[in-house]
């Protein structure tokens, strides 16, 4: 699926050339960023909307442009084992390379109007703002950062010079070569494992399961990126016991027991208004299946469930990190992430103590930091 690319000028500072494409024998250009491999005539955009064929090359049309910036708790990404309690400067652009019928950020990810991108900032400005605002990390989120690959990498480079970490919130739908470059600059990732059947991926998201599983295995085995997984459970679509059994068994078999899994609640949105909200019982059941199958850190999300949102020692069972929504309470980890009762290692990226950002959400205009 492609759309016209009217009025794109190579003189626009938000339009930059990209690397991952090739010319086809029929004269079209194939974008090789993701497995969708959009084949574009001159003047066409890919399904993601932000990458287009302009003068026989694929360009990114949203470089330096954002739908807005906000300081969030890192747990909202969700990341429960990466610098807990700390603030993260979050931003996204527009567009997406998936077509999820249930998208809960559809006003951003499905935007076809670039005036959605109201805020502008170059990579150095973002890194400097994060530092001055006391953020330990920057998150590429709201829409999938793989589609603004070049911008995200440049921001991550600027952040690394200031010891600001980079967090990718992604569906993992990216091809091998750009995947390798992208995750070279990330420090943490939450990958949205939307389901565990090809039927769901194709019919509900317009994509395929296998490339996502390949990305998950790549991140875990070939990089130093801290990774957590999230599955939004939609009643009647991807919440059967059989599917959760197979998914969690795959995680333990392929990744081991230490990759945290988040089971989060769905609410009707976008094009999927016929499914009911996810009952808390479904989330608890899925968390229980995961733990039975060997997942050490399984969580419930988008609901108030202190027990399901807290972290426990896999060895002695003590509560290591108490969470009430995004507010941290009891803390039983030393500076290196060991249980203070039995000494067992809790997987993750920890420091002495934890941050106190809590549940605050603070919108930011980066024009003040340019």
What features would you describe in this structure?
There is one protein chain. The chain is α/β, with parallel strands linked by helices and 370 residues long. The chain has two domains: 1-61, no CATH class; 66-300 and 353-363, TIM Barrel (Alpha-Beta Barrel), CATH 3.20.20. 24% of the residues lie in helices and 23% in strands. It is built from nine helices and 22 strands. It has helices at 106-109, 123-132, 149-161, 176-184, 198-205, 209-222, 241-255, 280-292, 306-309, and strands spanning 3-4, 16-17, 21-23, 29-31, 39-40, 44-45, 51-53, 58-60, 65-66, 68-73, 87-92, 119-120, 137-140, 165-170, 188-192, 226-233, 261-265, 298-301, 311-312, 319-324, 327-331, 362-364. The strands form six sheets. The chain has a nine-stranded mixed beta sheet with strand order 18-17-16-15-14-13-11-10-22. A hairpin with a 7-residue loop joins β4 and β5 (39-40). The longest helix is centred in the last third of the chain and has 15 residues, at 241-255. It starts with a strand and ends in a 6-residue tail after the last strand. Residues 109-113 have low confidence and may be disordered.
